[in-house]
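Our preliminary data section would be incomplete without showing what the modeling component actually yields. Below, a chain of 329 amino acids is followed by its predicted structure, encoded as tokens that our downstream tools consume directly.
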Amino acid sequence: MTTALITGPTGCIGAATVQYLLDHGVQHVVGMSRKKDFSRLEPEYHDRLEFIEGDITVREQVQSAISSIEPEWIIHLAAFQTPDCMARPLQGMEVNVIGTRNVVQAAYQLGDKLERLVLASSSAVYGPREMYPNETVTTDVPYRPANLYGFWKVCNEGMGQAFHRETGIPTVCIRLSTCYGPGRDLGMTSAPTAMLKCAAAGEPFRMPYQGREHFHFVGDVGAGFAEAALTPFDGYGVFNLRGITIHTETFIETIQSVAADLGIADLDVGIAQGAQGMPFVNDLDAGTSLAAFPNMPLTSIEDGVRISLLSFREMAEAGELEAVYNPGG
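Predicted structure:
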């Protein structure tokens, strides 16, 4: 029986990854998290995910889980986001660095039983867009994180590289930027999803920032991490997740157009007066990602917006939609 272990399985990206794995032949998916919250998982997957309550910052709990399961694939997603790292830096370091080290250290004990280790990285390892003169930003450009979160992701990539060098086990780090769609409800870049929720609920919303932004639809993110685990691969690699860069105004115009097609009227969405510039890099080059993992999907902005609005409208009609923006911290 094939087995995958995911840390952070109940988050937005984790839930999408769980569902993709189960839909694509993985017989046994185990998730480890501090609390059992299946609200982001579709109901048909609830009984198919084995859940282990555990804290990645507690080394003994991580080692016990991994040694008892003996997974072929480990996908490590659990982490604090940027605002929480800024607000609680010591706890953020414990989760994002020590937690990752605990997962990597426990993976050593599996030996050849482990076929792949996949670690979540971030576009936060890059510097500002103007630092990179080329048309797209490739993974071989210099690091220049703007905050602790980015530096900790650099550290985690280093742990992944060292793990591969010492064990020979294929190891992949995936860098991503703004994830949007159903299930995204926390973090600074959850603003585009909050706008979609407000559009579906008939509530006003103003984007707190503006500029060019690199978008990934949530289903593509889950599929991307799963494909990074399942697709044959040898060695160590860092890859930008496939995505699309557009301007905030274009994203808003797409919401307005798709909402009109769906009969959603009286939209009141726009950019906040005095909105700051988008602080994160964009134009992430995914050429090497597509070459290594050709089944990584790429949903158009129009289709991602449509899927999101339909989902959020259904939730609103059922009285289950919380149309708020929670940047975290």
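The CA atoms of residues 258 and 306 lie 6 Å apart. The chain has a mean pLDDT of 96. Preliminary results of this kind motivate Aim 1 of the renewal.
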